[in-house]
Amino acid sequence: MCGSRDLSIPQPRRPAWVLPLGFIITMLPGAFLTFASAVVLLASLVAVFQRPEEIVMLILLAIPFGILWGMWSELPHWFRRWVYRLLKHRRERREGGGE
Prior knowledge:
By secondary structure, the protein is mostly helical.
């Protein structure tokens, strides 16, 4: 990706902290969701064997986890857009202030 359409301006360099921060922001929610999902799955199995009539409650508990997993899978794209806007805003301020 370039900084201009006619390829005369190079793409701005990303700060060194962007890559590790993106990795951490991506991995922490995933690790938490994996752990929480495993706990809920085990509790669900125990509950189904002990009280099968509570299956509806377990389904209602699974819906938020499905929503959270869906949000987590979209996080990297959202994060990239946020960093792009941040860098673009900084570049515009720097170019506007230097004139």
